[in-house]
Design brief:
The complex is a heterodimer of chains A (524) and B (136). Chain A has 524 residues and is an alpha/beta fold. Helix content of chain A is 49%, strand content 6%. Chain A contains 21 helices and ten strands. Chain A is globular, with a radius of gyration of 22 Å. Chain A starts with 14 loop residues before the first helix and ends in a 9-residue tail after the last helix. Chain B has five helices and five strands, in the order E-H-E-H-E-H-E-H-E-H. The radius of gyration of chain B is 14 Å and the shape is globular. The relative contact order of chain B is 0.20. Classes of the chains: A alpha/beta (524), B alpha/beta (136). At the A-B interface, helix 3 and helix 17 of A face helix 1 and helix 3 of B.
């Protein structure tokens, strides 16, 4: 038997297994370097994880209603899903946006949409996580412009922009300009964030999409930490003090079905990042050593067959995330293999977290599996396997060069094909799919996005363009172009553009014009 | 001996979820088909142009962003406009059961839902895709 990452699993583990692994025998205490057992000494006794359900669909007012609904039902942080045109830097009236507006997230074309999206949400009390990458600088600028206008001090704005372009090129594949200029724009955000937004997580280094694209847990761990190394190097190259920006880097991991491998992954990740920060980069600030992470249950593990079974999968994965010591969690809804979740399905997913938090007793003890012969051994084995990948990526010249060479992309494609063949051969059982299938599938309600949304959104964006001071918008866009061509920090210019109601598409066109559009070589 | 059927695999629209289509590409290739993959973020016009230029016998489409009801029928219509309506079109992705009849009526031969086995896709293609211009 072996884990999905290929780590052999024995029937029984004893103290002898730990003897061969230097670290495993003494995992230390929570809150102490290297934080295998958690970054805080009291963990969930001190503070429960943040329950942060990802939401976004339709136009800004539709999503705003869902935000209020979730907050009323006990969700403790917001998490915004943007639609495909927004992720790719196109306005809703761009020909390429046809059929996509508001379908897989909310459409945000200008500051006007952002203001509707957050209407009635106290920006100084609720933290917002935004899953936005290529145009992250623009969405962050919109958020700041909105808060500025409401008179909220910038140092009270808490939240996260994902901004992880490396994982986009590796896995999620929503990009605008090529990798190197993408990193330059991220450097500008890091500098701005470090100076202006002390509570903002500018980058959430994301393994989630790497895993969803088909990687193993070990690859997810290794590639994510390698991405983190690349961002630390980018921040240093931008002239920032390491410990001025490193404490604000946060992480995002996936949680799949293989229970113990997932728990071990979180434990290994914390230990490895602490090492990377202290030993590789020489950080002297413990807060820089902490791997703070959000986790999401695995969308790709859910099945269209017998969808109610997904509730059980999500509960299992959520428990693994909590036993792994995550700081924040999203639980997927049972209907996500069909569409974005209905209100009922998302409520069950949120309640699953609340049952774990308040009924299971699990949060009462910190790292309750610490010291388990099996979990400690697996943690060390995953760590070892991940270091091997990191060394290989270092040898290739770091993650940016590795991505340009297509290395992680190929490793992931291999792993996903291998997994699928195991399913085909029934070496891996997926309940309801290749075993325990039924002839008649239950029909569950799904969320329908009204096609009218696209028309309404297109006309709102056109109104914004015709109603604004056009000359001012043009001036701001030209100033941004000059900054992008030269070395000035682009963030302040992006802020001026959004304040002048330049649209997301227009701002991205500036970057496309200066840096060119990225096209991935189509390789299978 | 007849040539192997040529199949174009494409990702219309803006979503970057390419895990499924890449797995299908390898399975069809392993089954002996000639597979051409267009890469990501293709417009219906780009896909149809590639299909004509490559003289393919079938097109497999994958969408996970919910844009299928707009983009799949548009591709089928463009194929008919270009006089190559005999190219077999099939698709898959995050597509609700209730959308499938409409897509089939619009000219999509078959929609595969999540969890479909590779064997089933390969079998369907074997039964429905023949080299065009070759009478059986």
């Amino acid at each position: 038997m072996e884990t999905p990452s290929g780590i052999p699993v024995k029937a029984v583990y004893t103290a002898d297994d730990l003897a061969g692994l230097p670290e495993a025998g003494s995992p230390g205490r929570p809150g102490e370097y290297p934080y295998t057992r958690g970054i805080h000494p009291t963990m969930y006794r001190g503070r429960l994880w943040t329950m942060r359900q990802f939401a976004g669909f339709g136009a800004a007012e539709d999503t705003n209603r869902r935000f209020h609904y979730l907050l009323e039902h006990g969700q403790t942080g917001l998490s915004v899903a943007f639609d495909m045109p927004t992720l790719m830097g196109y306005d809703s009236d761009h020909p390429r946006a046809l059929g996509e507006v508001g379908r897989e997230g909310v459409a945000v074309d200008s500051l006007a949409d952002m203001e509707v999206l957050f209407e009635g949400i106290p920006l100084d009390r609720v933290t917002a996580s935004m899953t936005i990458n290529a145009p992250a600088n623009i969405l962050l600028a919109m958020y700041v412009a909105m808060a500025d206008r409401q008179g909220i001090p910038r140092d009270r704005l808490g939240g996260t922009t994902q901004t992880d372009m490396l994982k986009e090129f590796i896995a999620q594949k929503e990009w605008i300009v090529p990798p190197r200029p993408s990193l330059r724009l991220i450097q500008d955000m890091l500098v701005f964030g470090t100076r202006e937004l002390p509570r903002w997580n500018v980058i959430s280094i994301s393994g989630y999409h790497i895993r969803e694209a088909g990687s193993t847990a070990v690859q997810e761990l290794a590639f994510t930490l390698s991405d983190g190394i690349a961002y630390v190097e980018a921040g240093l190259a931008a002239g920032l003090e390491l410990d001025a920006f490193a404490p604000r880097l946060s992480f995002f991991f996936d949680v799949h079905n293989d229970f113990f491998e997932e728990i071990a992954k979180f434990r290994a990740a914390r230990r490895m990042w602490a090492r990377i920060m202290r030993e590789r980069f020489g950080s002297r600030e413990p807060r820089s050593w902490w791997l703070r992470t959000h986790a999401q249950t695995a969308g790709v593990s859910l099945t269209a067959q017998q969808p109610l079974n997904n509730i059980a999968r999500v509960a299992l994965q959520a428990l693994a995330a909590v036993l792994g010591g995550t700081q924040s969690l999203h639980t997927n809804s049972m209907d996500e293999t069909y569409s974005l979740p209905t209100e009922e399905a998302v409520t069950v997913a949120l309640r699953t977290q609340q049952i774990l938090a308040h009924e299971s007793g699990v949060p009462a003890t910190v790292d309750p599996l610490g010291g388990s012969y099996f979990v400690e051994t697996l943690t060390s084995q995953m760590e070892e396997a991940a270091w091997e990948y990191i060394r290989r990526i270092d040898d290739l010249g770091g993650m940016v060069a590795a991505v340009e060479a297509g290395y992680p992309q190929r490793e992931i494609a291999e792993a996903s094909y291998r997994f699928q063949l195991q399913v085909e051969r029934r070496e891996r059982i997926i309940v309801g799919v290749n075993e325990f299938a039924v002839a008649e599938e239950p029909v569950i309600p799904t969320l329908r996005i009204d096609p009218e949304v696209e028309l309404r959104q297109v006309s709102r964006t056109r109104e914004v363009r015709s109603g604004r001071d056009g000359a001012r918008a043009d001036r701001c866009l030209s100033a941004l172009r000059r900054a992008a061509e030269g070395h000035d920090n682009t963030m302040e210019h992006v802020l001026e553009c959004v304040r002048a109601y330049a649209t997301l598409g227009e701002i991205c066109d500036v970057f496309r014009g200066v840096y060119g559009e990225y096209r991935e070589p189509a390789v299978v | 001996m007849a040539r192997a059927a040529r199949i174009l695999l494409a990702k219309p629209g803006l979503d970057g979820h390419d895990r499924g289509i890449k797995v299908v590409a390898r399975a069809l290739r392993d089954a002996g088909y000639e597979v051409i993959y267009t890469g990501l973020h293709q417009t219906p016009e780009m896909i149809v142009a590639a299909a004509v230029q490559e003289d393919v016998d079938a097109i497999g489409l994958s969408i996970l962003s919910g844009a299928h009801n707009v983009l799949f029928p548009r591709i089928a219509a463009l194929l008919r406009e270009r006089g190559v309506g005999d190219i077999v079109v099939f698709g898959g992705g995050i597509i609700p059961e209730e959308d499938m009849p409409g897509l089939v009526a619009a000219g999509i031969g078959r929609i595969f839902n999540p969890g479909t086995s590779l064997a089933e896709i390969v079998r369907w293609v074997g039964e429905h895709v023949r080299p065009r211009g070759v009478t059986a």
